[in-house]
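Q: How do we represent a protein-ligand complex in a form that can be generated token by token?
A: Start from the inputs.
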Amino acid sequence: MNAPLPAEVLKQHLIDPEICIRCNTCEETCPIKAITHDSNNYVVDPEICNGCMACVPPCPTGAIDNWRLMVRAEAYGVQEQLGWEELPGEKALPESAAAAPVGDDDAAAAAEPVAPAPSAAPGATVPPWSAAHPYVNLYTHKAPMTATVVGNYRVTGADTESDIHHIVLDFGDLPFPVLEGQSIGILPPGVDAQGRAHHARQYSLASPRDGERAGYNNLSLTVKRVTEDHAGAAAHGVCSNYLCDLAKNDKVQVIGPFGHTFLMPNHPRANLIMICTGTGSAPMRAMTERYRRRIETGENGKLLLFFGARTERELPYFGPLMKLPRDFIDINLALSREAGQPKRYVQDLIRDRAGAVRELLADRNTCIYVCGLKGMEVGVLDALREVTLQAGEDWSILHDALRREGRLHFETY
Ligand code: NAP
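Then emit the structure tokens for the protein with NAP bound:
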């Protein structure tokens, strides 16, 4: 059993700035708002953190899982942490405070109180039971891998504002094992306004585990050129513009892979409900392609896709998607700005297809994946709640089960 810590000692929760990919998952997950960030770092406020561990499982890199035994009065403050480029080393405690030894695996027990807090995240923090084991953090900021661009194609209509690219990176002879649903980090060249090297930007894989081209050591990304922020003001996306402008044979610095929960089930006849907007289609393309490549095994479950975009011409991969056999994937497109058509969001189509959604939800072999705009989260959850209630079922019970069993996953920004 773990010995309790003396009152003046704090097992301080810290985030490793060298591993963190600034994905915001921890800040979103923390049930008591102990995590904050600036343009440099994500940090934990020692005045608020109660060591509940809710943020630890969802972190795609493990950067969140760092702890230091500190004299409470000397704990690292928020401002100090925001300035860090790397974690400080362990400090020896004064003898009076060093009575209780604490090991690496007893962080939860060491920070008081230990009552597990429910996560604030709407989705699961565990993968589906049959997901393959993912590798994470094989390549880091300190030791990135160099990939070669072998393809860069626009996948939206040339006459539209949505300049979305399908970018293929090849890893040559170096191992880069990935699973559908995982992401990688790209290190854009150059420095930020403070003269620091740019942080890595995270992109979901758009290709399945066996490569963009089956059997090749490559993968693909879906990248939208950012020219404005979420509020519509002009903004130059550092990494998206860098990536969209890459030419064949250019070299790119890559870190990762990341992610150990947003993974697809591996058991036969698992069904997928995929709900996405815009470039959030990347992991859906990866999972769909995984299923497509094994159609002949006869082991696939059903695929139900809800895909939102402004218009058909702004929907990435529209052409190839529409060529997929209708008995392989049930495709529902929600177009919000198509001339002469009413505005439709994915959540509207979930309601329209309530019967099909309910049928799959009733099957414990079904997993749900939601990826894309942050704003869709609430709407999608409301729609799922409604279709469940219509059948006389209790959404809160089903929602809890979906989260507990790793069957409902969100990746939204
Ligand atoms: P977008 O073109 O701005 O929007 C796609 C569609 O979603 C549009 O039809 C839009 O309708 C609709 N929409 C807007 N608000 C919505 C809401 N509250 N509920 C449901 N639908 C809504 O999308 P985008 O620029 O491609 O953005 C995709 C998002 O995915 C980004 O936030 C990106 O960070 C994220 N993402 C990307 C990746 C990747 O690997 N590239 C991975 C994960 C997530 P309107 O006509 O009303 O705008």
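Residues 181 and 263 are 5 Å apart (CA to CA). The longest helix spans residues 376-390.
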